[in-house]
Each structure stands twice: as C-alpha cells, then as structure tokens.
Write a structure and sequence with these properties.
Elements: E1 2-7, H1 14-27, E2 31-34, H2 45-57, E3 61-62, H3 66-73, H4 76-79, H5 89-101, H6 104-112, E4 116-121, E5 124-129, H7 146-153, E6 160-163, E7 170-173, E8 178-181, E9 195-203, E10 206-214, H8 218-228, H9 233-242
Parallel strand pairs: 1-2, 2-3, 5-6, 6-8
Antiparallel strand pairs: 1-9, 4-5, 7-8, 9-10
C-alpha cells in the first residue's frame, strides 16, 4: 500500500503549516504533494515558503497556485480572471505585501514552480494540480453543474486528482476517477478553524482518501493579520478566526 499526504492553500500561515507538517511526519507517508497558493494573505509568507521548500527538499512535489502568480509577477488577469475590471485593492495590496516580504531567491523559486505534477503508483496515475486539470483558476466548486465537473475531470487520464483552491475539503469518488480536495492548510472556509489536509491510500486498484484536521493557534494568526493593517485584513483575520470566508 502507498500512502500520500496532500496539502495546499497555506496562504502565508506558517503556524498552521508547521502543525500540519508535524502530523504529516507522524503519519509517515510515502509521498507528500503540495497543491499551491503558498504565501498570499497570511502574516508569514517567508516562513511559510521556507517550510514548503523544506518539504520539497525531503521529496515533496509542489505546484504553483493562482495567488502565487499574483505575488511573483502581479499578473492579476491570470491569477483572478473572474475580476474582469481588475482585482480589488485588498487583493493587490496583499499580493504586493507578500512579494516585498520574500527575498529574490524565494521569488525565483515560487515563479519556477510548475502548474501540475504527476505521480505513478504502480498502475495508478495521480495528478497534482491547484484547481483542476489544466487550470490554476477553475476549481471543483460544490455548486458546479455535473456536466462541467465531468468536463474538467476528462482533462486528465489520472485516476486520482489532488487539488485545493476552493478551501473546502472533500473527497468525491466517481468510480473511474476520484477528486481529493484537501481544503486548506491555513485558510479553510468550511466553518472549522483548523487546518485541513488529506491522506490518500492506494492499494492495487483500490483508492481510499480521508480528510484530516489539525488544530493551530488561529487566534494568534488572526491577531497577527489584524496588526498588519492592510486593506481587507480585518476580514482576513475574521476568516482565519472563524474558518468561514468573511468579506
């Protein structure tokens, strides 16, 4: 049996990442996958990125998310295509602040991350992507029409699609394919103010996945965000504190 830990959407929350890393280490997986959105919004982008790079040095596969594009290159149309008139000031200020908080080496590393990685486990192909096959911005939202979900699933031959982006942890088993959305290791939206990640087990043709929850000091992180004072930080702090998107 092969066990794979999946995490994503750290969003500069180094405290949550470190708590998740401890639990991931304790679970002793055979592989670790990190599905992007690593630095924007939280109070410690540099420390969070250093933690991810340590995971990569230990063998983890890491891909880039849409907010990572915003942070490294300020390409807001690529990062947030749903804002047809450009992103709000709160998004721009958070991206610029995170950019300034990173050094040149960190920026270069984040810029060079691929959009997707693939992992073969015997005869089972696993795709790591931020949102969905072929996209860093079009995710598997719960409200999507079933035909759109199937269309996005058909964009890969992978049996298992590991992703994030929605900040809502879930496992969807279609029989022929399985979506494993780990949620968010630091910025979750389902009302539970803990970090979420996923553990996938592959044994022969059988694929099992479960969502894991890891407590961290959400109040301390929320206070650090509030103290920063960027536009939108009061809402970001409330989101971390409650586990619900506050805008």
């Amino acid at each position: 049996m092969t066990r794979i830990a999946v995490l994503s959407d750290v969003h500069g929350n180094a405290a949550a990442l470190e708590a998740v890393r401890r639990e991931v280490r304790a679970s002793a997986p055979d592989a670790v996958l990190v599905a992007g959105d690593l630095v924007m919004n939280g109070p410690e982008p540099g420390a969070a990125l250093d933690g991810i790079r340590e995971l990569e040095a230990e063998g983890a596969l890491v891909v880039q998310g849409n907010t990572d594009i915003a942070v490294v290159d300020f390409d807001y149309a690529a990062a947030f295509p749903w804002f047809t008139d450009g992103p709000p000031d709160a998004f721009r200020s958070a991206a610029e602040w995170a950019h300034d908080a990173l050094d040149d080496g960190q920026i270069d590393w984040l810029r060079r991350l691929p959009a997707e990685r693939r992992l073969w486990v015997d005869d089972t192909l696993v795709l790591l992507t931020h949102a969905s096959p072929g996209s860093q911005t079009a995710g598997f939202d719960a409200a999507l029409d079933a035909s759109v979900v199937l269309e996005r699933l058909s964009g890969t031959d992978a049996r298992v699609i590991c992703c994030g982006h929605t900040h809502l942890p879930e496992v969807r088993d279609f029989g022929w394919k399985q979506i494993v959305n780990d949620g968010s290791a630091g910025w979750v939206f389902d009302g539970d103010p803990t970090a979420s990640w996923a553990l996938v087990e592959i044994e022969g043709e059988e694929v099992r996945a479960q969502i894991k929850r890891t407590p961290f000091d959400a109040l301390a992180v929320a206070n650090a965000i509030s103290a920063r004072g960027l536009p939108g930080d009061v809402y970001r702090a409330a989101t971390v504190r409650t586990g619900k998107p506050v805008r």
